[in-house]
Amino acid sequence: MSNSSSPTEFLLLAFADMWELQLLHFSLFLGIYLAALMGNGLIITAVTCDHHLHTPMYFFLLNLSVLDLCSISTTVPKSMANSLSNTRAISYSGCAAQIFLLVFLVSAQYYLLTVMAYDRYVAICKPLHYETLMGSRACVKMAAAAWGSGFLHAVLHTGNTFSLPLCQGNAVEQFFCEIPQIVKFSCSDSYLREVGLIVLSACLFFGCFVFILLSYVQILTVVLRIPSKQGRHKAFSMCLPHLAVVSLFVSTVVFAHLKTPSMLSPAHDLVVGVLYVVVPPTLNPLLYSLRNKELKEALKKLIPLGQCQHQ
After folding, report:
1. Whole-model pTM?
2. Which site in 51, 128, 168, 261 is 20 to 30 Å from 35, CA atoms measured?
3. 280, 179 in Cβ contact below 8 A?
4. CB–CB of 104/150 below 8 Å?
5. Rounded Cα–Cα distance for residues 51 and 46 (Å)
6. DSSP assignment string, 1-64
7. CA triplet 295, 297, 301: central angle to 5 degrees?
8. Is residue 71 within 8 Å of residue 102, measured between CB atoms?
9. How many Å separate Cα 116 from the centre of its chain?
10. Sign of CA dihedral 291, 295, 301, 304
11. pLDDT in tens, 141-180
12. 11: which strand partners?
């Protein structure tokens, strides 16, 4: 490969060199992937089929489950296929597609979690205005804004990353393609544009985080004023699943991108990659259903009957 040309393929980081360990990796990822498919698939089906769940909160949850399904499907199947076929390769176009979809879906997830925080804020702090502020048209617009913002985010980052001349190698130190891993192959100073975009993204990320934090400060203030214990319990039950999902998302993303020099190792990169790409889509359905009686009831009706209940 000449120094002036971009690579035609990239080599992803393998979980193991031994065939037995590769088979173990395949089996573990298959189990996790099937669990994510089942959990998110059940939530999507339950929300779609049960008319009791046709509310803003569950509309946004349905969108989140679709994003979770798509995001884990962007990385895990390719990693499993590589382990099974004993290869590390991913094509240039495949890598670009993986980065585009991952940035799109993860960004949309975060924007949607921000919208969901606003939904919880209105439901608890402005209950009399809930139907006005969170009407079906407003909900569709907010969800579309989250998806659209994620798409724009992905177009900017992917287009800028793959417009860079790449000549510093092709071995990606992660089991999927991600922007920092590709930018390090750049052989020009134009990578500074991507650094600028990453800083802008970090500012947006922080802005959304502050919005979510302030929303929950207001929610907590209102909930603590509720005189009845049952009322407080109901309010907390509405908010805790979302708060748990946000905490999981933010902690894994921050842990993944704030690395100290002592953490720079392939093993650490693999663990971090699994934490923020594989774990949230798998655990989110569990976090949302644990304390949610409405969702549990819908799933109980759905599983034995195996069909939609249109009443």
Report:
1. 0.88
2. 51
3. no
4. yes
5. 9
6. --TTS--SEEEPPPS-SSHHHHHHHHHHHHHHHHHHHHHHHHHHHHHHH-GGG-SHHHHHHHHH
7. 115
8. yes
9. 14
10. negative
11. 999 999 999 999 999 999 988 888 887 778 888 889 988 8
12. 89, 171
